[in-house]
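quick one, two chains, predict together pls
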Amino acid sequence: MLLIKDAKIYTAAGKVIDKGDILVDRGKIKKIGSGLEAEGAKVIDADGLVAIPGIIDAHSHISGFAQGMKDQDLNEVSGNATPQVEAVFSVDTGSEAFERALQAGITTSAIAPGSGNVIGGTVCAVKSHGKNIEDMCIKNPIALKAALGGNPKGVYGKRNQLPMTRMGIAQVIRENMIKAREYMDKQKKAGDDKSKMPPRDLGMENLARVLRKEISLKIHCTQFDIITAIRLSREFDIDFTLEHAWGASDYYDDIMASGCKGIVYGPIGVPLGPGERRKLDIFSLVELDRRGMPCAIMTDGPIFNPDMIVVQAGEVVRAGGRIERVINMLTINAAKIMGVDDRIGSLEPGKDADIALFRGTPALDTNARVEHTIVNGEVVWSRG
Amino acid sequence: MLIIRNGTVHDGKGNVMEADVLVKDGRISAVGPKLDADGAQEYDATGKVVMPGFVDTLNIWGCMSPVDKDLLEHSDPVTPELSAVFAFDHENMMRQGVYQFGVTCAGITPSVMNVVGGQAAVFKTHGNHVNQMLVKEGAAMIASVSAAPKGVYGPRNTAPMTKMGAFALLLQALAKAAGPKKEDAGYDAKSEALKKVLDKEMPLFVNCNTGSEMEAVELALKDYDIDIVFTGAYGAKEQVRRSVVVGDLTQAISGNNEKVDFESLKKLADKGIDIAISCCGDVGASGRESLLWNAILWYKQGFSSGDVLKMITSVPARLLGVDDRVGSIEKGKDADIVIWSANPLEHYQAVAEASFINGHNVLDTGGKDHAAD
């Protein structure tokens, strides 16, 4: 048992407790209150510290892209659509990136295929600490990755292959979705007749999961590609999230009317230019959040180092975001978008005891630093 | 005339005072309490933080876009004769809107993927003409002994394919420039450019990411009396005797910036070694927020906000040789002054409410909307 005493607690479940205790038992949060006692429990004196749910990075490639991007184990660019591949198999659980994530208070990451392909493969939710991939991966798949815009064009355009254009990209998605529908129809028609069943196709199975709304399509898109994402999602009646989402402030009404399941914004801090880089507007999260859209923030690791999830959250505060809402963006909103909010994302009895203890308030105080990171009730990283 | 009244003035050199700042003809004409300023336009900065505009020592703003990569003259690994002035597109710089995040001046540098890239130029970050924005050309000679040059030339099977290859090119070019000029030799652009380094008219900024690269530079150049500044400098240790410009910490792609030893850097700072913070890294390029973010990351490491402010104002101005004009709030300096709602190094809520460049509030003149076009 672990007892955290006298912390300021942002529960990410609608409550901020100025001074409270968190009791952890067998890896789960047992109780939150004040004056809690537990015989034999290890006690962390958190007086003066701030407890928030372990931070969740809803869009990352850590441990799958090596530093220097030399080993790009998350871009299977042998074909423009590879729905059959699973990011979970490219996770290097021994990577130092997970230690760095823990230092920044990140306890879970959505590890996604890259954006080299129009359809990149499935995304998994991985904790930053554990014995092996089966231990660390809490849900797989959580989404199917897709990418619009310059990245797939950059890969296949050079080869004079489809897609060389945005028209081509949209068509790759449409063809795959239509084929998956046909695959599903054949399965349905075959019923119990195994002789009529189409040969099992792992890519089609993953696309079918999207068409059945078991998982969402995680769509890399910026600026005017946001409308393409919405248009395609409507055509195939699928759940989707907008990833990166630069330029979202041009499309508030479109996004809100689209049924979009969430925005995972970032990374900012890049030079502006025409086209995809014409507008970086992390301030849009303040308005989208106000309108009820689940909003989260990404590191896109290893593009950004793990500390940058909090620094970017600070930019949402600078743009006028209230701190409780911004902490939700780092935690519960990301968990909802990833479909793992039954286990993580808030400090409530019954949830996994994934907790980040800061000195100072992250995203408010620029010098807020993690003191302890707790995963499944175990203190897995401490300062000093 | 403009008078900025009653602000908490951080002068960029470590002093903090409650004071007025008087601006005449685009320059600071007085700093002090209760200044007389008959007829001056008044900016009430009561309760606000008044700081010098930030200066980034090394950047690419204004010169690089997906179509125009005008700082990367990779036809030759030794190009000291090139000047960044000719790569600068003021529209590109304006598009970045870096003045919205307090940056009013930046050193723009040729490629560190050449062993000798060329000459940096210093520009203001707001304006509509290259000549109006230019503060200084030939501010520094940009060189590099990091792994970057061999990454460009190695795949072509041309020198440098190794670090020793890079050093040989650098030393050969310096030796030629230092040698006697034969009367019939004709125009030698490279040697003439490097002579300015040998004559100490211009410092040599050497991009080094690791400690051993810095050691190798000391060994290679020990017989030359030239001003050397280490840039990138992620591996700087306490024995470093040169000024350092430490590069971007926000991006994690290269991993070099994960190896920064801040405890050693604190000792360097205590010894009085000049340390500047830059947001230009060894991989990606940076945006308008990046210099402030990097400063915040240093503050988070335990440096005082006053020391960090120097690292993005007066120190980079000195290293670029433009401290007569920018980098501090002092009489005679350009009126590049940013008014913050709170100390931006300490609080994320801090917003730049006014950004004066040459005495004009560029957030008032449509500047803020420009980036959103």
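The longest strand of chain B covers residues 134-144.
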